[in-house]
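Hey, I'm writing a tutorial for new members on how sequence and structure tokens pair up, and I'd like a real worked example in the thread rather than a made-up one. If someone can provide the structure for the chain below, I'll link this post from the tutorial.
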Amino acid sequence: MTTIAPITPADHADWLRLWAGYLLFYEQALPQEVTDDVFARLASDDGLHGAIARDDDGAAIGLVHWLLHPSTWSTTSYCYLEDLFVAPDTRGAGVGRALIAHVREQAAAAGAAKVYWLTRQDNATARGLYDRVARSTGFVHYETSSEPGRPERG
């Protein structure tokens, strides 16, 4: 049975291994200072929330990060599920679904109107799950640098 618990300082090594797998999946590299900062904020629960899924033997097999923010379309907050990762050798066993359910429970307890997230268009495995637990909004994601003088497109 999968158990899910909030990230604590004691989870650092397990979280780091899962985080590295997540970044590898998305072909991203972050400076060590960013990784250190993310974990510090998750472990102190200062507005960035996180949880780790563990199997029956206590091995860390998944992670999820989320945050609550105000909305201009609601009198309550929204919950953005920012990162979700399940170890490749445990995918298909319900861990991702359980992590999403955990975030939904946390969002409901905080009074958030909805939970939403993004994924790559070609992430077929994850989208198979997402299509079963949520609805696609049809929106297309754009981004640009916030730094003046930097090109709008990279």
